[in-house]
Design a protein that fits this description.
Two copies of one chain form a homodimer. By secondary structure, chain A is an all-alpha fold. The first copy, chain A, is built from 21 helices and three strands. A three-stranded mixed beta sheet of chain A has the order 1-3-2. Chain A is globular and about 70 Å long. The termini of chain A are far apart. At the A-B interface, α1 and α2 of A face α1 and α2 of B.
């Protein structure tokens, strides 16, 4: 047991850790503000964009110096603390420091250069619909990723090391247990849905979501719904941007954006609710540990679970369609007069056919887009797939899983920007992990909150929101993996069967399979 | 003469200076953004304000470290450069470094504490209208200022040292040459105006500016006018805030704000034009030296000269009233139908009577509010006035210069926030210096630009704006004093007589004296 003197030294060192990380986090909040501003309201001139880019790069350099400083390293080495939250915080801080300091600056610079060139080459390759123009830089990028993984997690499988950046604690062994089972259950379900073509409640009925809807009225209604779900406008903003996102300056100033199209009422609405889910997570983070890693979201997958829980489990549910119908009838009375909640529910849940583009796909076909990408990423990392073979493999899997013929790289393997900028591997799997977490978490909430369906039907969301706050939001990064978090919240690790059952039951009923 | 080797070393050191100052400036642009955001669009919650304050304090610490770093000191010592702009830049950088490093951190902290307490005590004292509640902290603050002046400019008069922070190169000797002469010329002019009561053109005529005007229409018109004057919306924004200001992230992203009141059309309009003047200065700064001190505005007084040149010399002029009348008639047709340009001109230039509050006063009485404050500041610094005597001295001078009886500290010596937060002495004089510079610069522009009145009447402002850009904006901080800048632009240093003549002629005609 340490003497008092040593113990105090350990405490003091831990205070130093918290102070340095707090400073870095405060600077990151300004980076978040500047990034939001750039995408939402910055003047359009080239000079403004150039100056902002330079300022953000300078700030990033300052933050990187703080996070890799000898002072932090020394304090981390000496620090001691007690209490689960503090212990988790120190563990996360040590992991992050190790990761950051194991990569030499020369490699960081090289990666930035290759990813920037990767983006440019991808833009050109997609415009020409020619994967071979993108392949060389993708090879460079992949080799760099492997080299970085070997440094940050020596002895660990490279895919696992990369995945850990996006989904802490997840491994390819777990992915291989889960994804193929779900894929093999959903692919045939999709084929049956495609055979039916139309949800039962929409057969011979006009789809009430088709038509033109004033975007200002859409924005007003969406904002009101976000507030009803619990978005706190005194701790955030809702604005419009080209691509919806949630960012800002931390839990007390969360900035989400959305977009509205006159001819796509559902997109603006579900987009706003999706970002509201992300925002509720951010606004609900543990106040006492703000600025410390343990207060941050566990992972991308868990973040996505919060957006998807509200978007899919709540907003695409039957009870919500009663609430939503009242909102729509108040905002667009002529268009929604006489529409039933069942019709609205069916309209909100119609499956896209064919589904070729990930970002335009729906709840049912989306996971297959992800499984395809994950399988390719696994193959690229273990060497069983060569980069030059990607287009052929892509098209083969699209045919097998979604029955689609891809004849065009631009609409196939080149459709996503992510791989071009270094998010390979490990980024894509988090989407579907998030949707599975969402189902499992919501199922538990549904058991523990009395009459949840009736409450949602009435527009009463406070109890669910508080339940999520206590069980997920304030927990932050305390757990070592999403499986640990799920076990704590739902009593077991990720169980793919709950997700399969949810989709099977929902679409069997909707399409009368 | 240095050998080539030494010369290159000097050049390299100068490049280091520019790099470090450039980094600091880029971080300052983010501070400018966060400050703007805080005042204009940040969520209203207390948590957001607290987090922003902490983040800005952390960033300020980082910037201060950069600007007082040994690396910068070393580079400044070794640097060599050629060319007027670079030589001025290095001189400014060395001055700023000396000022920043001569004040110990302990004194910086003490000043922050005293100024913060000063603000709090001032708020309480003003609420109670009791100067004695504010006097103790003001004494502390003044002693600290004197101590700081002795450190930053050893051997220099303390008032001059403090004034230099606001108005580089100005001295109390110059103020004493200028201010009393102007005061003694304008005070009697004001008395004659007060006797007349109303401008000739408004006698028996309805004042067209009185009434209620839709604020959205005001905002639309003001924005259009700002753009016509030359505000580049691709390099800036115009928004609404409680107190109008110009800030933002540098020349490529200048953010100005204004406010509109339904019952005060003139305030919103002249406020927007005032901030447009500040913004044109910022947007016109020397692109090649952005991030370097030489590209920055020369001083507060010169900055104010640019806002006041557009607000007063242009927007309050007869030619402009023709242009403005067309804008008003297009925006508020019912209200301005049948109004003449002469009537509008008289309405825009009516002198307030009585004038007791500086921020509510007009072009003619404003300088007397400044002279009064400057005389008190001079007396406080040389010891001829005691802090406890301030209220009596204030009231005595108000009576002498503006014929007003002040019976209430809140509306007298406690009316301004500035002294409470350390802006004593040297801040207030810059307002009237700015208005004098504006007259002298405009008189020269008027001689050098053919048919300027006719162009303004037609709404053609480009030539004047470009003239100011070349003669003032891109010059930045090249000159050692405003007198040097004025000599370059107008052929002579500040000449108070031009200001006296401008006011005398204008108000003699307006009021038929």
């Amino acid at each position: 047991m340490a003497t008092n003197g040593v113990k105090n030294m350990g405490n003091d060192a831990y205070e130093d850790v918290k102070r340095i990380l707090g400073d870095a986090s405060r600077l990151e909040s300004l980076s978040g503000l500047a990034g939001w501003d750039e995408l939402v309201i910055m003047p359009s001139g080239e000079g403004a964009a150039k100056a902002r880019g330079a300022a953000l790069a300078t700030l990033a350099g300052v933050i990187h110096e703080m996070k890799t400083s000898e002072a932090l390293g020394k304090a981390l080495g000496d620090a001691e603390c007690h209490g689960a939250k503090d212990v988790a915080n120190l563990r996360l801080a040590r992991d992050a420091y190790a990761k950051a300091t194991r990569v030499p600056n020369e490699m960081v610079r090289r990666m930035a250069e290759v990813h920037s060139r990767g983006y440019q080459d991808w833009v050109k390759a997609r415009a020409a619909s020619d994967f071979s123009m993108f392949a060389p830089v993708l090879k460079e990028s992949l080799e760099l990723t492997k080299a970085r993984c070997a440094l940050v997690a020596p002895g660990k499988d490279a895919f696992d090391a990369a995945l850990d950046d996006y989904e802490r604690g997840m491994t390819k062994a777990r992915l291989n247990e889960i994804f193929p089972v779900v894929r093999d259950a959903i692919a045939p379900l999709i084929r049956r849905v495609y055979e039916k073509k139309t949800p039962t409640a929409l057969v011979g009925v006009k789809n009430p979501l088709e038509g033109e809807f004033d975007v200002d009225l859409q924005a007003k209604m969406s904002k009101e719904i976000a507030i009803k779900l619990g978005f706190d406008m005194s701790k955030g903003r809702l604005d419009v941007s080209v691509h919806p996102f949630t960012g800002g300056c931390g839990p007390n100033d969360v900035r989400m954006t959305t977009r509205y199209k006159a001819n796509d009422l559902a997109e603006g609405l579900t987009g706003t609710i999706h970002e509201t889910g992300h925002s509720l997570y951010e606004q609900g983070r543990c106040e006492e540990f703000i600025g410390q890693p343990v207060s941050e979201a566990h992972s991308m997958g868990v973040h996505e679970s919060q957006s998807l829980l509200w978007e899919r489990m709540v907003a695409l549910s039957k009870p919500f369609s009663h609430f939503l119908l009242r909102e729509l009838q108040a905002t667009f009375p002529a268009e929604f007069d006489g529409v039933s909640a069942d019709t609205l529910y069916a309209a909100m849940n119609t499956v896209k056919n064919p589904s070729t583009i990930r970002v335009e796909s729906d709840e049912l076909t989306y996971p297959l887009h992800i499984f395809l990408r994950t399988e390719l990423e696994l193959g690229l990392m273990d060497g069983s797939i060569a980069i030059d073979d990607l287009p052929a493999k892509w098209n083969e899997k699209m045919k097998a899983y979604l029955g689609v013929d891809i004849t065009d790289d631009a609409k196939g393997v080149l459709q996503d920007v992510h791989w071009s900028s270094g998010a390979l591997p490990g980024y894509f799997p988090t989407y579907t992990l998030g949707s599975m977490y969402a189902v499992q978490i919501y199922n538990t909430a549904h058991k523990q909150i009395a009459d949840l369906d009736a409450k949602i039907e009435k527009g009463e969301f406070a109890e669910l929101r508080e339940w999520l706050r206590v069980n997920v939001h304030v927990v932050g990064s305390e757990c070592e993996s999403a499986d640990e978090l799920l076990t704590r919240v739902t009593g077991k690790p990720l169980d793919a069967q709950e997700y399969i059952d949810y989709l099977t039951n929902k679409y069997t009923e909707l399409y009368g399979l």
